[in-house]
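This part of the workshop introduces the protein records we will be handling. To make this concrete, we reproduce a full record directly below.
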Amino acid sequence: MDPFVALADPVRRDLLRALVSGPARVVDLAARYPISRPAVSKHLRVLTEAGLVTAEDRGRERYYALARPGLAPARDLLDELAGRRPPIPESAFDALDLEVRRTVHDRRAGTDAVPGTGRPQEESACQHPHRASRDRRRP
């Protein structure tokens, strides 16, 4: 089930708030509302199907707990709407570091050629920019 559909109901949102403090039994959760225990159980089943709640049997009783990973779609939507971007993964910085090291090495070795000229960048940088583009057109 879509987590947004499950979150649309105010009773279900309140049940999630109650589960923030830790796992609870249906009877404990039902005591907070003017609705029947079967109605609370139905709400909890919807939340479980949406991946927002987990159920664990302990003896004769069933405990429900908040499934924080299930909140990711809602969190992602809110971050998107707020203009926040996800953090940059560490692997991206590793790749950037490797590329910078390669570029520095190539420039020191003089192998970093300007595209289309075949000449090292240092040599081309000394020439007038228009002359360099004119030289590229010559066969």
User: Anything to note?
Assistant: The two ends are 65 Å apart (CA to CA).
